[in-house]
């Protein structure tokens, strides 16, 4: 399980430091588990999975798919955006909305030039 956990973190670009900051679990404990040198309780695993989801929505599902030996179908861009928005705080939501508005405005400008 520790190898699959490590694989998930690498796949999603989650660092031990980030995970430690979000979960409250020490970097050392996380590192030992990732290397298969230490065990964790179900409570600690739950904290880590919750933190992973905050950092990279979908990463927890990815981990579970690996455990089950199944290939995870990657969500569409729209589905990923929905997951990110659900996990975002108010400030992050505002930044996302501004980015969407800029993108929409830019695509409308291009459409106007081609018509």
From TrEMBL:
InterPro entries per UniProt: Cro/C1-type_HTH (IPR001387), Lambda_DNA-bd_dom_sf (IPR010982)
Annotated HTH cro/C1-type domain residues: 13-52
Cross-referenced SUPFAM superfamilies: lambda repressor-like DNA-binding domains (SSF47413)
Record Pfam families: HTH_3 (PF01381)
Record-given protein name: XRE family transcriptional regulator
């Amino acid at each position: 399980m520790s190898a699959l956990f490590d694989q998930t973190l690498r796949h999603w670009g989650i660092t031990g430091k980030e995970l430690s900051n979000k979960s409250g679990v020490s970097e050392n404990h996380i590192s030992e588990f990732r290397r298969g040198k230490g065990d964790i309780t179900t409570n600690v695993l739950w904290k880590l999975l919750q933190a992973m989801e905050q950092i990279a929505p979908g990463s927890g599902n990815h981990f579970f798919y690996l455990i089950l030996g199944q290939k995870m179908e990657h969500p569409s861009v729209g589905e990923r955006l929905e997951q990110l928005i659900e996990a975002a705080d108010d400030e992050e939501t505002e930044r996302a909305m501004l980015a969407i508005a800029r993108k929409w405005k830019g695509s409308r400008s291009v459409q106007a030039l081609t018509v």
